[in-house]
Structures are given as structure tokens and as C-alpha cells.
Amino acid sequence: MDLVVAPREGPVRLGARVSDGKLRLSIHGADAPRTRSRLWSEDESLLELPEGTLRINRVVRRVEDTGSGAVLEERTIAENRRRLLNPEARKRTCLTCGETACHARVEVPLTEARAR
Questions:
Q1: What DSSP line would sit under 8-68, residue for residue?
Q2: Which of 111, 113, 108 lies closest to 93 in space, CA to CA?
Q3: pLDDT digits (tens, 9 = 90+) for 18-70
């Protein structure tokens, strides 16, 4: 699923980190935000099909007023249906798959340390 960040007020800087196996995103702006958004997934399930296994969930967003904590909005914003790769395919990455014409291919700059 793609995540689109569209700030409600002014320019922002996006931060990302992985902590305890969870992706944590933060948005930093010049002024204190008036709202806070939280995203999470619900109703996680696996569906076995002849073509493979699907992971299914819903992504929910809650928007809260930072001053009062009041919930301004809470709704499902996406329904995710993703085919899971077989165990061998899960080990491959953009750097190890061997495909050279893929639109998602990542080019890693060669550093002096790696060149030696």
C-alpha cells in the first residue's frame, strides 16, 4: 500500500524509523500541529487460494484535536489485499533478484570501501 503525506498546514519534514518491528513515521513542521493522525491495521487474515496466499486487512485513520484530544474523524481509508510470496521468493530483494529491467530496481552507489 502506498502512503501519501499531505500536510494540512504549512511545509513539513517526514521522518521514518523502524522500532520493535513497526514502522514509525513522524512529521515535523515549523508550527505546532492542531491535529494528530494515527494509522493502524485491523482485521488481519490470510486467505488461501490456488494462486497463493493473500494477506488481507483494513487500514484505519483516526484524526484527533491535539488540544482537546477529541476524535475529529475515524474511518477505514484502505482495504489491503496483498499476495504473499512463497518462502524462497521472500528471501529475494531488489538487490538480489537478478532482474535488470524492473521498474523498481535499486541502484546502490559504489563506495570506496566496497570497491576494494
A1: SSS-EEEEEEEETTEEEEEEEESS--SEEEEEEEEEEEEEEETTEEEEEEEEEEEEEETTT
A2: 108
A3: 888 888 888 888 888 888 888 888 998 988 888 888 889 999 999 999 999 99
* C-alpha–C-alpha distance, residues 80 and 58, integer Å: 6
Question: Which H or E element spans position 88?
Answer: helix 87-90
b/e code 75-91 from CB counts within 10 Å (16+ = b) = eeeeeeeeeeeeeeeee
CA triple 19-6-13, angle to 5 deg: 55
Q: Provide the grid cell at 55.
A: 494477506
Q: Tell me, what's the pLDDT at 85?
A: 75
Nearest to 66 by CA among 34, 108, 43: 34
- pLDDT of 71 reads 96
> How many other C-beta atoms can be found within 10 angstroms of the C-beta atom of residue 54?
15
Give percent above pLDDT 90 in the chain: 17
As a whole number, the mean pLDDT across the chain is: 79
